[in-house]
Design goal:
- With about 475 residues, the chain is mainly alpha-helical.
- The chain is built from 14 helices and four strands.
- The longest helix is centred in the first third of the chain and has 42 residues.
Length: about 475
């Protein structure tokens, strides 16, 4: 799952996002496909084999196809909300997801959407901290198993690695804004594809080496029906985390040149990207489950289904850490921008806003360090709070499930459907209205099921 917004754009613009003639839009079908795939494929792909194990050989692929279909429908609805009042030839444009919600549905919906987005961004930072620590610990365990044997008691804690990752982010978070970290986005994308393909390749090699396919139609066996239900709901939450890209769709569409109409190009790009992503996800999930069966780990690269070649596993986990270092900032910078802008507007005379300090090193005159008290205090508190929550709840699959379920229905279903009604002037109780409302209600029920199950898993993991 990805989301790269405009960190300098207001969260709730005071006026419509009207056309900006100074912006040169040069994006094409292929750049849009690349942006979507880069934004979607991330750490969520590592959980898909575990999801398949909970759901089995029939329900697992069907669930992924269902979420792919929902994601594609959501993308089609959102694509028609970029221009207004006409979806293809309207003179005005939305430049952000939250801005589109506010203009179409009003300020209240805009603020609710903004709140959900900010909670989601904060939660992703927690998940990324857990993921980075797991991968750093996995490197240490991999080397231990290689030196001491696969039966060795190579157990190491994660808290120290979370603190180390938090310390790195304390420094990285002082980068002023998103536009100063574009290179991080490129590095994160390359690392994401690298470790995903390594995980897939290792799973395929294990299936070929074993000579048979593991797994069953019903998925893993459990001691009770209730436990099976909770695991299925957690798996649905994890899949929900891996798919949607509604937060970045309008931003991507805003890069496309016209003609042809941006909505038309975006729909083609979404179709191609979802097809490619789904194929990749099915391969990762299916081969991972086929390789391990009921023993499929929650994280394909840190759960130690693979021991050798240890150097390749180390490299894959190092790629995860590098991806997470960049991904953390990609998701956190929009959060920083919104809260800091609010503080500046609310307290313009604060010493945190008006006092800036510059430090020079006597021996290096060219070196200057500019200290922004607001940035230092707020962002340091943010990183420390994220790290503390990750230490308290260091459960990879459960946290991803909660995040996926929490944001899926409102951001990928409800707001796109309601904006589509306004954009297309669809009246109540018409055929299209009934179909889309039914789709929204069913999606809500599935989301609630996944959210409750993921919370249950998080609480159970904590208590046990």
């Amino acid at each position: 799952m990805g989301g790269i917004g405009d960190a300098d754009a207001p969260l709730l613009p005071s006026s419509t996002d009207s056309p900006l003639p100074t912006i040169k839009r040069t994006g094409t079908l292929w750049t849009a496909v690349a942006h979507i795939i880069t934004g979607v494929i991330g750490s969520g792909v590592l959980t898909l084999a575990w999801c398949m194990a909970q759901l089995g050989w029939i329900a697992g692929p069907l669930a992924m196809l269902a979420f792919a279909s929902v994601t594609l429908l959501s993308a089609f609805l959102l694509s028609d909300c970029y221009r207004f009042p006409h979806p293809q030839y309207g003179p005005n444009r939305h430049r952000s997801y939250v801005g589109a919600v506010q203009i179409n549905l009003g300020d209240l919906s805009g603020w609710v959407c903004a709140l959900i987005v900010q909670i989601n961004l904060y939660g992703i930072a927690v998940a990324y901290t857990i993921t980075a620590a797991s991968s750093m610990r996995a490197i240490q365990k991999s080397n231990c198993y290689h030196d001491e044997g696969h039966e060795a008691a190579c157990e190491f804690g994660e808290n120290a690695y979370m603190l180390l990752f938090g310390a790195v982010q304390l420094v990285m978070s002082q980068i002023p804004n998103f536009h100063n970290i574009e290179w991080l986005s490129v590095v994160a994308a390359i690392m994401s594809f690298t470790y995903s393909f390594i995980g897939l390749g290792l799973a395929i090699a294990k299936v070929i080496g074993d000579g048979y396919i593991k797994g069953s139609i019903e998925g893993i066996s459990t001691s009770s029906v209730a436990k099976k239900v909770w695991l299925v709901s957690q798996a649905l939450g994890d899949i929900a985390f891996a798919y949607p890209y509604s937060l970045i769709l309008i931003e991507i569409q805003d890069t496309l040149r016209s003609p042809p109409p941006e909505g038309e190009t975006m729909k083609k790009a979404s179709t191609m990207a979802v097809f490619i992503t789904t194929f990749f996800y099915l391969c990762c999930g299916s081969f991972g489950y086929a390789a391990f069966g009921d023993s499929t780990p929650g994280n394909l690269l840190t759960g130690f289904g693979f021991y050798e070649p240890y150097w390749l596993i180390d490299f894959a986990n190092a790629c995860i850490v590098l991806h997470i270092v960049g991904g953390y900032q990609i998701y956190s910078q929009p959060f920083f921008a919104v809260l800091e802008r609010w503080y500046v507007e609310r307290y313009p005379n604060s010493i945190l806003v008006n006092n800036h300090y510059t430090f020079k090193l006597p021996q290096i005159p060219a070196f200057r360090l500019e200290l922004d008290p607001l940035r230092l205090c707020f962002r340091s508190a943010y990183v420390m709070s994220v790290t503390a929550i990750a230490i308290v709840f260091p459960y990879f699959n459960d946290v991803l499930g909660v995040l996926g379920a929490f944001g899926f229905w409102p951001l990928a279903i409800y707001f796109p459907v309601e904006m589509y009604f306004v954009q297309r002037n669809i009246g109540a109780w018409t055929t299209k209205w009934i179909l889309l409302q039914s789709f929204s209600v069913i999606s809500l029920l599935v989301t609630i099921f996944a959210l409750v199950g993921s919370f249950e898993g998080l609480i159970t993991s904590k208590l046990s």
